[in-house]
Hints:
The complex is a heterodimer. Chain A is mainly alpha-helical. Chain A has one domain. In chain A, about 65% of the residues lie in helices and about 0% in strands. Chain A has helices at about 5-20, 25-40, 50-70, 85-100, 110-130, 135-155, 160-185. In chain A, helix 5 (about 110-130) runs antiparallel to helix 6 (about 135-155). The relative contact order of chain A is 0.16. Chain B has one domain. Chain B is about 65% helix and about 0% strand. Chain B has a two-stranded antiparallel sheet. Chain B is globular. The interface between A and B is large, with 67 and 77 residues.
Amino acid sequence: MNPALAGVALAVVVGAVVAGSARNARSAILGLVAVLLFGPFLADPTAQPLGLAARIVGAILAGYLLWIAARGSGVWTGGSRLGWPTELLVAAAAAAVGYGSHGLGAPPLGPALAQAAGFALAALSITPIANGRDIVRVGTGLLLLASGAILVRTALGGTPEPLEQVVTAGMIAALGGALAVLAVTARAEGVDFKLAAERSARPRRAPDAHPIDARPIDAR
Amino acid sequence: MSLAVYLAVTLGFAALALATRSRTPLSTAIGLAGLLAATIAAFALNPAELVTIGQAGLAGSAYAQLFLVLGSLVGLGLAVSGLATGSRRDAPMVTLATLGIAGLTLTLTDPRAAVVAATAGGLFGVWLTLASGEDRTGATLGIRELRAVVVAGTMAIAATAWIGRDLTQLAAQPVVFGLAYLAFALAVAVRFGAIPFHFWAARLTDAAPETALPIITVLAPASLAIVGLAWTDSSIAPLLVDLEAERMVVLAVAIASIVLAALAALVQDDLEHVVGYSIIGDAGVVLLAMAVLGPAGWAPARIWILVFIVTRSAFAAWAGGIRAVFRTGRIDDLRGWVIRSPILAVAFGLVVAAGIGLPGLVAFEARASLVSLALDGPIATLVLVGTFAPLTYYARLLAVGLGRPARPPDPATDWRPRLQRPDLTSPVAWLRSTWDLNRAFSAAVIAAMLGVLALATSVGAFGGPDAAAGTPAILEGPSESFAPPPFTSAEPSFQLVPIPTR
Lengths: 220, 502
């Protein structure tokens, strides 16, 4: 096992545990940034400089946009209800499964540690995605899931080409930007990122840019 | 070079529109100018262009060009219709970004990169869920859409990664091919909001204006579906593996979407939900194509996707036009719409003719081919009949339109064009007031124009059948285009990969 790669994998998983369990929104975002920054280095051979640079820029952009959305003190997100030790154990178990099943039935072209970290990230993403009650919590799960899928892709297919790395960087930045826009919008009605309660009635549809007249268009 | 120009135009104007978002008129003008420039750039695309970057690259094709030309045209039409009928201020920006990323998705030669691009293309739709005064509700709808896009993208990334390598030394059962195929097919289903994955799409319909819906639920997922078809035909179909169980799951989702979405559209009481479910129903035919698993389905599936994009966009523009005339989307309040707006009646007829088609039309034949290729026996006949289910909600809308109008006409929303005496002392104010007076007329004319475009696509104009049957140019070197080779006979032309038996 390559010790440097093991260190990078550990950093990715620890970042994911922090992102999935922290209740302070900015701590969660810092964990996410660690995942996004270290993830591209979890490849053997190391990605070409162009692709690596693109991934780093994409990660920083996504993290920065989310950081802006969580501006202010005492901005909270859901965090893990079971606590970080449980999240760490879940990640460790999933990483063991990923490491042990490296290649998923056929000769792999990438490192086993990438698959281990990818499985850990995917396992940690399940609860926030399925049960998250606020934008940052669900968004954290989505970024972990996307990063995990990319790591598994690296483990199976080898180091991505620079063009694919650029496209991936764009996707990560766009996902971070979309989450930041949603988070800022949710905070416009309060200080937190909570999702709106389910309503039985359908919301009124009001075009915001070019109203035909001052009346609501659909006066139901 | 022409590909780079198209990407630069679409993504550049989208970035500019986003940067000027706080100044709505300027941002809208930039967005519209960008859509116009994108249309011109799409016409100028070189179908034989190859761009090599490292060991991967971009490869143009006549189909990608036609997709982008039609996408740019309907995007422009929907943006102008949205101006007239009321839409989100970010709609032109989102349309441009979606088109640019669709261009990237359709031309990338590596499916593993293409699915990442297709996922990125779906992320911009969240801007269309946000409306002033509905902050938290809009954000909630947006995160649900984002969840569908990312989960679907992850499934597609995993599927392409699993199969995208040398599998001659496969140690596991060949069931992995079935799982990978199922994952990608369900990813496409989730992106379209196919039944039973339709909850996010139904909620989205509550918030997004009609004219913005096709951008999120048609145009962006269509590029993933095209990648999925190409990947399935080149990576899964040539393998001699029994995938009947997985096919059954995909077929079940497709048939449920075709039939149940039409029923759902029939019982809705507002137009936006009729539009939303009509999209899901037509997407069911795309999923049928995913279940064909053979090169014979390649051309009909891609023809249907083109018709699907243009027809559903025209239907959405028609619904927007109706809202501009009646100031409501409630179907019960639309009695007499045929009389109140003859232009919209023409547009409606064109949409029905394009969407349902007649024997001999390319769209009709493509849909019938997909049903017969995916299914056998009586069930094929039943499903073919089911594809005509949209006639039920079209008939309901027509019956309402032919009814006696519920209230006297509103002069402010008259369907005819109206001109004011030009005021040379204040031309901007004159233009603005003239535009305001003609919103209903403008929306109706755009719906009719998109209806003509839909019918032309359905007939097979613009070289659609030839483009759909073709394949992109192949890059030289280790990275090969993942599209299947040209299909010229009834026999599969793929090289079969030996699968070790246990």
